[in-house]
Write a structure and sequence with these properties.
- With 377 residues, the protein is of the alpha/beta class.
- 34% of the residues lie in helices and 22% in strands.
- The longest helix is centred in the last third of the chain and has 19 residues.
- It binds 1,4-dihydronicotinamide adenine dinucleotide.
- 1,4-dihydronicotinamide adenine dinucleotide binds next to strand 1.
- InterPro entries: Gfo/Idh/MocA-like_OxRdtase_N, Gfo/Idh/MocA_oxidoreduct, GFO_IDH_MocA-like_dom, NAD(P)-bd_dom_sf.
- Its EC number is 1.1.99.28.
Length: 377
């Protein structure tokens, strides 16, 4: 089968997420790195793309030049990944969807709920895929957790508790470092700092595993480093449409926690626990029974978890292969065989609506808010 052609915007040299996309997209021989506008500095972007093997005529200076160069090519890209800073996602995603390209957009998909709803509408009208990179949902053991919930193996879910709390912005003497500062500057980051950056991964994960959507929420947000205008810590209580009670803590000042993303799901007949720092194990406890460790790659997993387990049991798999799983599901979807589970623009706008609801709640001393975008109420 011919490889699909893949292009990337952002993710230039030294960027945080760029390497994970390049490893993920090319891990399975499904995509060829055909085009790129990788950097906000045109010459650096062109040079870096060529060093990565992109042909010179498809190593572009910016995303507009890439759109103009690709749209009429007979061998144009099948998929474009948008891995630029948040405020640029809307404009780029909209332009590429309108031109008939499939898109994988980094989170948060947009800055406002209105923009998010617009992306959902544009994606629907174009008939193209707009996926959002909630890549943690593609770890095999997260897919196993979701399948177990769907199969009723822990009964009706009563409670979900999730954290995405790290300590990497906890040093007040480093708060003015430009790489850190912009995340708490409303002009650059929008209405929310840590919740929009990391909290939405945890919120999406809760919806994904519980197979339910967040309906309402109440939030407390704090800037524990006083010079910050946006929160570096948030505690969010939520309720899902199916009645599940949710608790979420997200922080960037939790010194000693490293990646710090974990989730526990408590049902009527059992509980599940997963953590991103040990992604190959899922802990399962049946009511009245002992805790069992379910391993990636072992026999008897649910089909989706088995399919996405790459190497033999007990051999570590990690973040780039979770991203690769997103690209596998994208390749299937582009070839007309979509699978359940690929995060999409609807997930993207639900996250943004939750961010805005959390900010409104925190400003109103925790008053409960509708967390859904108007189009899904
Ligand atoms: P970064 O600041 O490390 O890198 C951004 C890159 O985009 C740089 O190479 C920069 O030159 C380039 N760039 C900026 N504006 C551009 C433009 N207009 N056109 C082309 N290139 C441009 O940022 P980082 O941390 O890699 O984040 C990028 C996006 O990925 C953000 O939206 C972030 O939220 C998301 N992200 C997602 C993660 C996940 O787990 N899904 C993890 C880390 C980041």
């Amino acid at each position: 089968m011919a490889k699909l052609k893949w292009g990337m915007i952002g993710g230039g040299e030294g960027s945080q997420i760029g390497p994970a996309h390049r490893l993920g997209a090319q891990a399975d021989g499904l995509f060829e790195f055909a085009a790129g506008a990788l950097d906000h500095r045109p010459e650096e972007g062109r040079a870096y793309a060529q060093r990565l093997g992109v042909p010179a005529d498809r190593a572009y200076g910016d995303w507009q030049e890439m759109l103009a160069g690709e749209k009429d090519r007979p061998d144009r890209i099948d998929l474009v990944t948008i891995a630029t800073p948040n405020a640029t996602h809307f404009e780029i995603a909209k332009a590429y969807l309108e031109a008939g390209f499939n898109v994988l957009c980094e989170k948060p998909m947009t800055m406002t709920v209105e923009e998010g709803e617009e992306i959902v509408r544009v994606a629907r009208a174009s008939g193209k895929i707009c996926a959002v990179n909630y890549c943690y949902s593609a770890y095999p053991m997260v897919r196993q957790a979701r399948a177990m919930v769907r199969a009723g193996e822990i009964g009706k879910v009563r409670l979900v508790v999730t954290n995405f709390s790290h300590g990497h912005h906890g040093d007040a003497t480093d708060a003015d470092n430009p790489r850190v500062r912009w995340r708490y500057d409303p002009a650059m980051a929008g209405v929310s700092g840590q919740f929009a950056d990391c909290g939405i991964h945890a919120l999406h994960m809760a919806s994904f595993i519980c197979d339910d959507e967040v309906a309402t929420l109440s939030a407390d947000m704090a800037s524990t480093i006083p010079s910050r205008q946006l929160e570096d810590d948030a505690m969010v209580n939520f309720r899902m449409e199916g009645g599940t009670v949710g608790r979420l803590w997200t922080s960037s000042v939790a010194i000693g926690r490293q990646h710090g993303f974990d989730i526990q799901v408590f049902g009527e007949t059992g509980g599940l626990r997963w953590a991103s720092e040990h992604p190959n194990q899922l802990f399962y406890t049946p009511v009245g029974g002992r805790t069992q460790i379910i391993e990636k790659g072992e026999g008897g997993l649910h089909e989706d978890a088995m399919r996405l387990s790459r190497v033999a049991i007990a051999h570590p798999e990690g973040f780039p292969l979770a991203v690769a799983n997103i690209y596998c599901d994208l390749a299937d979807a582009i070839r007309g065989e979509p699978r359940d589970g690929l995060p999409n623009a609807a997930d993207g706008v639900r996250s943004i609506a939750a961010v805005h609801a959390a900010v409104a709640s925190a400003r109103a001393e925790g008053a409960w808010q509708d967390a859904r975008p108007p189009m899904f109420r």
